[in-house]
Amino acid sequence: MDRRKILLLIFDGLGDRPVAELGHKTPLEAAPKPALDWFAANGINGLLDPIAPGVRPGSDTSHLALFGYDPYEVYTGRGPFEAAGVGITLEPGDIAFRCNFVTVDEDMKVLDRRAGRIREGTEELAKALDGIKIGRVKVLFRAGTEHRGALVLRGKGLSPRVSDTDPHEHGVPVPEAKPLVPKAKGTAKALNAFTRAAHKALKDHPVNQERVAKGEMPANLVLARGPGQFPDLAPLPEKYGLKAAGIAGVALIKGMCRAVGMDVLEVPGATGGLDTDMVAKAEAALDALGTYDLVVVNVKAADGKASEKIRVIERIDQMMAVLKAKLGPEIVLAMTADHSTPVALADHSGDPVPVTVFGEGVRVDDVSSFDERSVAKGGLGRIRGRDLMPILMSLANRAEKYGA
To answer: Which pTM value belongs to this model?
Structure first.
């Protein structure tokens, strides 16, 4: 049996609802996108609920599902994936948090949860925090993209069942972490001690002195949220027998890929923002398919206003045109989104997202446009995120027979 390679494209936040200013069309319905439509017209289509119908997925839980895992069984929190994404190797018992560099006043009131959208100097600030000792607990800290970072507390008897130190709003005091279960008292105490130590280390740091001199907000504190322990995951290469690689610009998604055993490929120009080089990602994916059985590409750029979303869709279409011109018959391609982000909400929603599968032997349906309403008529019907990998394994002639 001829085994094929799999290319999985995940467009962040691509799904939407009808928008009044677009004549009650979704951005996908309104945007010119000949390449995306070509794949839909020559593939099999459907709607995909990343987790389950009506469930608002996070980017982390949705990617777990799209990789073929049940988030309800394996998800422990976002922190471990953020830590893996910035290069921290977690050990059993570690507690990981996602963090922001923030600006607070002298009364520890939050002035800006992103420290003026700080972009430079965070590596130096992170070094001032990495290695701090709090009793028997060791701190590991790394800077992420822009104002983001990852914190790991390493020690015996720690628990992820603590509340955030991030109040998720401005103009309020920094809250203390609280234990959510009795055995988390020591962890909450250690996190609060780290918060105080971080402020002491950062408030007069040369990076912040320079920022203040330039009239910029200092990154004088770190706030933590999303605690978790590294999940007990069967590595994807073992689960599916695939040599796999991931291409992403965002630390979280890199961490997701590393967590399931994928190699993370660095692509120049893959920033994880609106300026990301989508064509470079496509070219890198095509190259990687010469070595890997599965290549996952995350494109983090589709959130935003309707006009911005349409422009991003047009750029995604250029990326798909490159793939259309160069894909061989040995490749099975799937394109979908990790969640819907309706422009009216500016946040994740529980709406299903479009999904298209293209490749030799696919039962092509009558759908001719890649958008939320058109694909609903397709041959895939409505599936869950964790159904996608088994479908792709079958179409790639890699699925194991169930039964005799």
So the answer is: 0.86
